[in-house]
Amino acid sequence: MTDIETALRRQVPDEEAAARAAEVVIRRAAEAGLIDVAYAAVDTPFGRMLVAVTDRGLVRVTFPETPEEAVLVGLARHLSPRILRDARRTDAVRRELDEYFEGKRRRFSVAVDWSLVHGFHRRVLDHTVRIPFGQVSTYRDLAVQAGSPLASRAAGNALATNPIPLVVPCHRVLRTGGALGGYGGGLDRKRFLLQLEGAMTATLP
Questions:
Q1: Residues 42, 53, 170, 174: which is the catalytic one?
Q2: Are strands 83-85 and 58-62 parallel, antiparallel or unpaired?
Q3: What confidence score (pLDDT) does residue 19 get?
Q4: What does pTM read for this prediction?
């Protein structure tokens, strides 16, 4: 056996020990109330998406191309620096996303933490989350519902910066007349989600 093979064989127990130690750290940090934000990666048809939760609920969902470091820096700046990777705390979100993409879930039941959204943007997203599965709304309708009938463009900006896509279904919002409009995750994903929900019609581009 070569020195390299010997080293590799010794590495496995070390990795297992490190994993066990990490579990202990996470458990003790949670017990001591030292975790304000827990996050983990979730496998989806779009790739590995990052989800983050607080004691209030789901606070962040990001598409695969968003750098993890940037997400964590943003969470630390706007919420708390006490952030730790903890798959157990995000398990409910992962399970519901799995069921949604498998066509088994039409409504998310996980609680939502709106801490990253304020003012008009919050009002827009609060109405967005009420759009039923399989149905669509428009930027103009959301602007009206949010109390600013002439603010369709601002409503679009609120949707473009939605920190919790999929669960807060900004993909269900179209331009007046039925055009897709924009989507923070890209139009191909918007089409995919609308088709998944049966809301894509022949009139949509």
A1: 170
A2: unpaired
A3: 45
A4: 0.82
